[in-house]
């Protein structure tokens, strides 16, 4: 988007077309470019326009609102299938929970980005393949491969969502970073909507109980069941039509939590040594350790993605570098524990999945840390850090596909 803005800087009509095509990306790219544009009159006009537009709330077009309504009803309808078709909830939800939400969000971005017929067919085919496959796996008690397939299917569907989000963009790196930013904004906006919905739920049930009506079951069965999947759909609509709503909140959250997580990790590692706990002989501790690792990595990547187009202070860069370095230590401990357990007790589907995931995360962290080091010592621009994150995302997609579709076969559905 940056190159396109620069190419059409003196063409108001083309700039307007770029803005209308993708307001969110245009605003981010323009704000990042503005310090380089000098005192150009048209650039000053666009700066004022984008700043002023950021104060208004856009409710989109009638088609947008209709899509949100229909998608929310369809998502709620899928969530109600066990009750409507007398299906076993313990079988249906673990396998299909991802299909309640991800196809709706994917359809939204496929529609907004005008995906061509070939890519649209690829997206639809991948979703249908996942749905048919996961529901075709045999019922087996304590099947680790089934659990792994269900968990990684969520990541597979998330990857398809990312593919639709990127759309026809020429610069996939920028759009992939935008996708990470969208995920951060989505979490913030969805949390706000759910908080408001929770308050409304409490007030509604409480008020009806005062006049003798017990509506809890009805409210949960219909309002909550349809409202929960509707929340991220509505949040997506709001963040895409009004990027200013959380555009200033997410970077602040990133700046606050990055140093806090760094301090927490250092204290946690010291406490782990003092407590005598280790992930080598304690399976549950190893699982929690890996959960911590994934969470910290998400914070690192979100922090970098949120501010990769903005001017970052050296203090912020140092915090991110130190956080990445400490996370590499955490990852190395987890990886060595997995290798130890494989050497002692042999390979299983769980150990193979965790081993592959940790190796990928370690490689990714090393790439990001190396780029942060280069930026701090003036050997590279901050854009290279974002590029190191974005270019590795398809590798995760490839690995989740292997675990989802091949592991049950390779390990005989055990």
TrEMBL record:
Keywords: Membrane, Transmembrane, Transmembrane helix. The chain crosses the membrane at residues 65-87, 93-111, 120-140, 146-166, 186-213, 219-240, 252-273, 285-305, 317-340, 352-377, 389-411. This is DUF4153 domain-containing protein. It comes from Hymenobacter lucidus.
């Amino acid at each position: 988007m940056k190159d396109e803005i620069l190419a059409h800087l003196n063409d108001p009509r083309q700039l307007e077309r770029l803005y209308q095509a993708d307001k969110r990306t245009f605003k981010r790219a323009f704000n990042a470019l503005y310090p380089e544009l000098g005192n150009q009159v048209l650039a000053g006009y666009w700066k004022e326009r984008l700043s002023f537009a950021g104060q208004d709330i856009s409710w989109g077009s009638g088609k947008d609102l209709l899509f949100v309504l229909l998608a929310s009803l369809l998502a709620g309808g899928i969530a109600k299938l066990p009750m409507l078709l007398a299906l076993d909830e313990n079988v249906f939800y673990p396998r299909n929970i991802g299909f309640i939400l991800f196809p709706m969000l994917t359809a939204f971005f496929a529609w907004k980005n005008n995906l061509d017929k070939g890519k649209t067919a690829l997206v639809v085919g991948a979703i249908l393949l996942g749905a048919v496959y996961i529901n075709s796996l045999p019922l087996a008690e304590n099947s680790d491969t089934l659990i792994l397939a269900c968990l990684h299917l969520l990541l597979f569907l998330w990857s398809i969502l990312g593919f639709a989000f990127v759309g026809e963009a020429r610069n996939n790196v920028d759009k992939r970073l935008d996708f990470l930013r969208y995920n951060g904004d989505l979490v913030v906006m969805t949390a706000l909507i759910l908080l408001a919905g929770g308050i409304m739920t409490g007030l509604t049930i409480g008020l009806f109980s005062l006049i003798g009506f017990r509506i809890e079951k009805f409210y949960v069965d219909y309002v909550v069941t349809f409202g929960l999947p509707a929340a991220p759909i509505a949040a997506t609509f709001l963040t895409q039509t009004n990027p200013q709503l959380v555009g200033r909140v997410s970077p602040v959250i990133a700046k606050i939590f990055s140093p806090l997580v760094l301090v927490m990790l250092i204290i946690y590692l010291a406490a782990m040594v003092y407590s005598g706990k280790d992930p080598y002989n304690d399976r549950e501790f190893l699982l929690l350790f890996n959960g911590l690792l994934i969470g910290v990595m998400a914070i690192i990547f979100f922090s970098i993605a949120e501010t990769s187009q903005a001017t970052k202070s050296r203090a912020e860069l140092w915090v991110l570098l130190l956080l990445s370095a400490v996370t590499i230590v955490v990852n190395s401990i987890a990886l060595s524990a997995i290798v130890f357990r494989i050497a002692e007790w042999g390979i299983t589907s769980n150990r193979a999945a965790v081993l592959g995931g940790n190796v990928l995360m370690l490689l990714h962290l090393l790439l990001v840390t190396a780029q942060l080091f280069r930026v701090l010592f003036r050997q590279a621009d901050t854009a290279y850090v974002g590029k190191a994150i974005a270019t590795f995302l398809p590798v995760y997609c490839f690995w989740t596909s292997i675990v989802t579709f091949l592991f049950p076969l390779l390990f005989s559905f055990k």
